[in-house]
Amino acid sequence: MIDNAIQKGEQIGIQKVKVEVVLTLNDDGIPISQIAKYTNLSEQEVNMILTNHNRQK
Length: 57
Fold this sequence. Notes:
This protein has about 55 residues and is mostly helical. It has helices spanning about 1-25, 30-40, 45-50. Helix 1 packs antiparallel against helix 2 and helix 2 crosses helix 3 (about 45-50).
């Protein structure tokens, strides 16, 4: 039970970092295709993050 909570917390932390990286790379003008490559996310996931944070694609 505790192990599951730790794993869930780690996953949430990793996702938060990925969101921060996506937003930072986007602010720096990096193309979505490269952001996806660097973060191991799909372009659709990158677009979703940008949309959810009211950022330009």
